[in-house]
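#struct-pred
JK: can someone run the complex with NAP? inputs below
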Amino acid sequence: MEIQGAAALVTGGNRGIGEAFVRALLAAGAARVYVGTRDVANATALVDELGERAVPVRLDITDADQVVQAARRCSDVSILVNNAGAFTGLTLLGSPDMAAAREEMETNYFGPLAMCRAFAPVLARHPQSAIVNVLSAGGLVAVPAMGGYSPSKFAARAMTTCVRAELAPQGTAVSALIVGSVDTRMAADVVGWKETPANIAAHGVRAIRKSIDEIDTDLMAVEVRAHLARDPKGLEAQMARGLGRGLSTGR
Ligand SMILES: NC(=O)c1ccc[n+]([C@@H]2O[C@H](COP(=O)([O-])OP(=O)(O)OC[C@H]3O[C@@H](n4cnc5c(N)ncnc54)[C@H](OP(=O)(O)O)[C@@H]3O)[C@@H](O)[C@H]2O)c1
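RT: done, C-alpha cells with the ligand placed:
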C-alpha cells in the first residue's frame, strides 16, 4: 500500500525498534504517526524533534480501556504497527511463579490481539490498510532460555496468520516481521552482532508497501529459519545448550 499521506500508529513508539518505525514512516511520507507510549513523558523528546506529524498517545496495550480509547482517538489510522513487547529473561520452570510467563503472554500476544480487534473497523474505512506485527526468531524455534517470551511469540505468529485470513476480505494486509537480534534496551545484555533498529524498520516499511506476509529482517532471523529447515533437532539441541550459558538466538 501507499504510505505517503497515510496515518499510522506504532505501539511502544517511544524507543528502540518502535522509535525507528516512527522515524521511517514519517520519512516515507506518512501524514501523521501516532507514537503509542505507556508514559507520554517518555516520548516528549522524540515528538519535539519530529514535529507536529508525530502525535503522542498514551497506550498500554494490556489495558483494555486504553486500547479502546486509542482506537477512538486515532480514527484515521490505516497502518498499525504492533511493536510493543516484553521480555523478562526468565525460564518456564526456573521462575518463582507464572507471573513472568503471564506478563509476556499479555504483552506479546493478548496486547497485539486486542489492538487488532480494536483497530480492525478503523482500518476497514480505507480501501488499503496494513498491520505489521513485530515478532521474533524465538517464535520460529522454541528457546528454553526465553521460556515465557518464546511461546508468547509463537502464539503471536499464529495469531498473525489467523488475523490475516480474517482481515483479507476488507483489504487489510497483515505482515509478520521475524526479528533476530537488535541493538535496543531489550537486548542490552546480548553479546555478539546486533542489527540496527533502523534496518528492522526499513524491512517493516517494505512489508507494508509490498504486502509481504512474513519477512526475516536480519541475519540471525535468516540463519535460524535456515537451520530449522536443515536440521530441526540439531537446532533444538543448540537452543537447549543455551539454557546453561545464556541466550543464543533472537528475542
Ligand atoms: N531487541 C531485540 O533483539 C529483539 C529481537 C526480536 C524481537 N524483538 C521485538 O521487537 C519489539 C520492540 O522491542 P525493542 O527491541 O525495541 O525493545 P525495547 O527498546 O525494550 O522497547 C520495548 C517497547 O515496548 C514498550 N512496551 C512494553 N510493554 C508495553 C505495554 N504493555 N504497552 C505498551 N508498550 C509497551 C516499551 O515501553 P516503555 O518504554 O514504557 O517500557 C518500549 O517502548 C518487541 O516486540 C520485541 O519482542 C526485539
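RT: quick notes.
The pocket of NAP is lined by residues 11-12, 14-18, 38-39, 42, 59-62, 83-86, 107, 111, 134, 136, 179, 181-182, 184-187, 250-251 (CB under 6 Å).
The mean pLDDT is 96.
JK: thanks, will look after standup
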